[in-house]
Amino acid sequence: MWKLGVLCLAAYFSFNVEAGTTTQKPINDNCTSAGYCYDNDCELPACRCSGEDPTYDPDYDVKKYPQILYLTYDDAFTAIAEKDFYSGLFDGTFKNPDGNAIRATHFLCASYTDYKLVNKYWRELGHEMASHSITHKTDQNYWRGINADGWENEALGMRKMITQFANIPANEIKGFRAPYLQMGGDEMYLALSRSGFQYDCSWVSRDYGYQHLDQGLYPYTMDYDSVQDCEIGPCPTCSYPGFWVQPMLDLEDNWFESNPLHPDWGQPCSMLDGCIFIDEQTPEAARDMLLRNFNKTYNGNRAPFGLYMHAAWFFGEATWHYEGYKMFLEEITKMGDVWIVPISEGIDYYANFANKTNEEIIALGDASPFALTPKLTDRASHVCDEIEPCSYIVENDDIHKEERYMTICGKVAQGRQSCPKEYPWLTSPCGGNRPCA
Ligand SMILES: [Zn+2]
C-alpha cells in the first residue's frame, strides 16, 4: 500500500513546475500583500514572524524546552484502522511527561469516515479532528484551479460534516490539510482564514527539513512574508493576520545511494507513506530511520517534529511499519521532555506559553496547554447517541453507483437527527438534515 503514497508524491512533484492554471476566476486579486516581518510589528499571541527561532538567542538553553511531536493521520477515520492500529497507540501504552496518553490529529475527508469513532476519540481521548476536504478528488489540477469559494466548499464543508455527524462544535475544528499537499496559494488561504480556521498544515519544506532538521522551521502566522521554501506551489503572497502555518518538515528516508552527489543521503519524504526503505524492511529499520530524523531535531533547535501519514502505511504486508513506529514511540516517550500532542495544542504553546520550560509546563498542571482533564470535562456533554448505520447507493460527480455506509451520531448540538435523505457531499454537506451545522 505504501507504493500508493509514492505515486501520489511522484504525481505532485511532476505538477510542481507549472504555474497555477485557474479554472475559476480568482477572487483574491486585491489582497494586502505580505511585507517583511519586523519583530516590533509582530507580537505574540496574535503574530509570529516566520523564521523566528528562539535558539538564535545565545542565552536560550534549548535543552530546557519541550520537544513537541505531532502524529497525524489523513483521509477516512475507519473502524478497522481504529481496531488494528489506533487502539494500540492511544490506549495509554505511550504517555506524555504529564502521565496522560499521547494524542494525535486526524485530517478527515468524507468517504468512509466513521463519525461515531471521531466523536469518541475527540470526546473521550482528547484527539484533534481537522478538515482535509470533502471530495479528496484525485485530480491535482482541480485543487490548483479552484478559487476561494471552491476551497471554502471543500474545507468548511468538511468542518460542517464533522460538526453535524460527530457532534463536535465547529470552533473545535481548527486545522486544514490540502489533499496530496497540493496547496492552492492565496485562494486557499483566503478561504481558510475567512472561514475561521486557525491553521494550515499542508506546506512542506525541504530547506528546513531533510538535511536541515536541526534547524527546523517553527510555526508562524501569515501576517507577513514567509521565509519558507515553496516546494508544491502555488504558495501564498498575501497577508492573513493571525492565521498560522505549521510547516511540514521533510524527513530523510533509507533510499541511500540514490543520489550520486551524496551517496550517504537518503531521499526527502513529506509523508511517511512516501519514505522508501531499500535494503532492510524490518521494524528496526523503520525505528532507526524515525529516530535518526527525530534526533536531528531533538539535538538541534527543537522545532516541532511531525510524523504525517495515512493509516494505509500500517495496512497490508508491511506490519514492520507499525511495529517500528511503536518501537520509536516507546523510545522517545521515555525521554521526559517529548510531548505528543495535537497540532492546535502545539500552536497554543508557541502562541501563549513559549517562554515556559519543560519543567514549568509540567508544573502548570491543568493550566498547561497540553492538559487533558479540562478538555475532557468541556467535551463530556457532546455525546454521540449512535444510531443504525446509514446506507446509500451514491451517484454524484465523484462517486458512480457505489454503495456507501455512514455511521453518524443521532445528536447534533441540542437536537436529534436521523440518517440524511441524500448522501452528504459537496453541494449538501448535511445531506438535507436540518438544522445544518
Ligand atoms: Zn489525503
Walk me through what this model shows:
There is one protein chain. The chain is of the alpha/beta class and 437 residues long. The protein has one domain (2-16, 47-379): Glycoside hydrolase/deacetylase (TIM Barrel, Alpha-Beta Barrel). The protein has eleven helices and 17 strands. The strands form six sheets. Strands 1, 2, 3, 12 and 13 form a five-stranded parallel sheet that branches. The protein has a four-stranded mixed sheet with strand order 4-5-8-7.
How are the secondary structure elements laid out?
Blueprint: H1 2-15, E1 67-75, H2 79-90, E2 105-108, H3 115-123, E3 128-131, H4 140-145, H5 148-166, E4 175-176, H6 185-194, E5 199-200, E6 204-205, E7 220-222, E8 240-245, E9 248-249, E10 251-252, E11 268-269, H7 283-298, E12 305-310, H8 319-332, E13 338-340, H9 343-352, H10 358-364, H11 373-379, E14 390-395, E15 400-406, E16 411-412, E17 415-416
Throw out a few tags for this protein:
single chain; 437 residues; alpha/beta; TIM Barrel; five-stranded parallel β-sheet; four-stranded mixed β-sheet; 11 helices; 15% strand; binds zinc ion
Report the uncertain regions: 1-22
CATH architecture tag = Alpha-Beta Barrel
Mean pLDDT: 93
Termini gap: 35 Å
Extended strand count: 17
Question: What small ligands are held by the chains?
Answer: zinc ion
Structural class based on helices, strands and sheet pairing: alpha/beta
In short:
With about 425 residues, this protein is an alpha/beta fold. The chain is built from eleven helices and 17 strands.
